[in-house]
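Hi R.,

Here's the chain you asked about this morning:
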Amino acid sequence: MRYNQHQFAVLIGCVGLSTAACIRPPEPAPLDVQDQSRFRALSIQNLREAAFCDDPVLRMQAMEAIQEVASADAASCIADNIDNGYAGVSFAALMALGDMRRATADGSARLAVANQNRLLQRVRTLAEDRDPNVRIAALYALHAMGDATRTRELADFLLRNTDARVRANAALAIGRLRDPTSIQLLHQGLKREKKDAVKMQILEALASLGDSHGIERLKFYGFSAVPDQAALALMCLANARTIEAEEMFRIRLRDTDYPEIRLQAARGLGRLGFEEGLDTAVRDLFFNRPRRNIANDPPQQQIARVRALAALALEAIDNPTSLGPLWSAFNEPDQSPYVRLAISRAALRLIDGHKSDAARPTGHESHRAPANRVAGTGVED
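And here is the predicted structure, written out as tokens:
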């Protein structure tokens, strides 16, 4: 099983990153007001440029990043991308549109779209798109915009579509609806599903709804001897902000040599309000010790993937002292655009003080921890 471009694009990393000399990470330290202002401006500029670049995967990641952390002027990029010609980008933009409309009362203001009726009509048109993944995201966005007349069609995509990517994306959308009555449907899909990666997405949806079976299954996979599977399970639990996974996150932060696993654990703890993964994430933001001779995973890709995950972990941990290392990493001349994008969203989270709860509908309320106790489809088989 491999991470894919759609839901897990940030884990892919990228090619073209030069392997630099060994880097000593800077000590965690806040930035002064002037540097924060400059960092914020450059981060917003970076998100905007990524939202309209020629790389579809980078654009997809930009859609999620903008929805999560960007201000109103940058958020308009989401509406501009819902029907752009790239199915993956349209999917990401429509899901981001739905998340934004569902998450906050001022979602419409953040979108800065003058004619909401026109936007609604564009989304309805995309619900007829030839690509089923685009249709799924459009149905989710329509539901978030107040039109639930076709939401039940998501069940058909989950249970009857022959494409594993489509089934996984349907599970993603159903989970984000946050409707407890969907649990039975998700269990039905899980029972008949044969593809492991689709099962993981269904389990994440169940965990986000507080379903104990989904949570326990993901915790089991989180200790898998297969590193990719363990990292994916940890990511799903972190996305769902599952308080029941707290102990497992702590164990996996310390007991593994795989940076992807420890960073997903650090991110999971951060989303629960704990900062134990801060030093680990700062160190791995400058990761430069890839495993050699790994089939289909060249060193440059590993470096970019780990650094991007480190930035996402720092975003979740939400400690302002990580701004110093993030600023240093952002300014590295050969930094991957994927890493720089992840750094930008982390910086905006830390500088603007946004909280995950206000940005994206993920976990079930009864399974969320307090905000901060100490101071995150398609598949490819």
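One quick note: The mean pLDDT is 86.

Cheers,
M.
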